[in-house]
Amino acid sequence: MRPIDLPCPPDLRCMELEPEDIPALQRFFDSNPEYFLAVGGEPAGPNLAEEEFHELPPAELKYNRTYYLAFVPHAGSAPWRAIAQLTSDLMAEGVFHIGLFIVATANHGQGDAQALLASIERWAGAQGARWLRLGVVVGNARAERFWAAQGFVELRQRHGVATGPRLNSIRVMLKPLAGTTQAEYLALVARDRPDC
User: Fold this and answer.
1) Do the beta carbons of residue 57 and residue 86 sit within 8 Å?
2) CA–CA separation, 178 and 36 (whole Å)
3) Per-residue pLDDT tens for 141-180?
4) Are 12 and 81 in contact (CB under 8 A)?
5) Cross-referenced Pfam families, in alphabetical order (predicted)?
6) Is-contact 80 74, C-beta < 8 A?
7) Please, where are the H alpha helices in 44-161?
8) Dihedral (Cα; 54, 129, 71, 174), 10-degree rounding
9) Residue 148 dihedral angles phi and psi, to the nearest 5°
10) 6 pLDDT exceeds 80?
11) 88: Cβ–Cβ under 8 A, 6 or more apart, which residues?
12) pLDDT range class, residue 107, cuts 50, 70, 90
């Protein structure tokens, strides 16, 4: 892990994961199965961290780079509080896609998700993000409520998307940043237009 200059709540620091951190990422997945149960119907498989860490966007989608982040307490061996995976400039310059955002179960309901997302949003904006984009599994009510409450709006749905062993419908959601608009985004990213 190496520090990344992402403003965190005072008790945490943000670290960018490197390949040698994959076993620790797998331990985080194993210790916090709720996300995987909600979207795939089963806990994380034994090699999921390896697969997720090395997974790239589909070949037809251009992007700049992918970040895998861990939010960890300053105290050395304390459990990770959350992880996030972001891809910059996905499909168009200024689009930051949140591929994963998982807060440790022990910290649910304490405001961590909101605080960490605000930190991610500020950092992404400083990196040139004009929009935050993500996909939410339809029926994952907790996540659907959370993202809507954070200002994300549904653009369209995609159906038959493999998420673990399940085929799910996905809400493609967007949050414009820094005075940008949804219309500007859709002018750049035809793939996310409701009529496509």
Assistant:
1) no
2) 33
3) 999 999 999 999 999 999 999 887 889 999 999 999 989 9
4) yes
5) Acetyltransf_1 (PF00583)
6) no
7) 48-54, 112-126, 141-149
8) -80
9) -65, -40
10) yes
11) 63, 64, 65, 66, 67, 95, 96, 124, 127, 128, 129
12) confident
Q: What angle do CA 80, 86, 87 make, to 5 degrees?
A: 155
**DSSP symbol at 45:** P
d(CA 23, CA 12): 21
Residue whose tokens read 């949003």: 121
Domains of the chain (ranges; CATH) run 2-192 (3.40.630.30)
Structure tokens that stand for 165 in this block = 């062993």
Is residue 28 within 8 Å of residue 104, measured between CB atoms?
Answer: yes
- Res. 49: pLDDT tops 70: yes
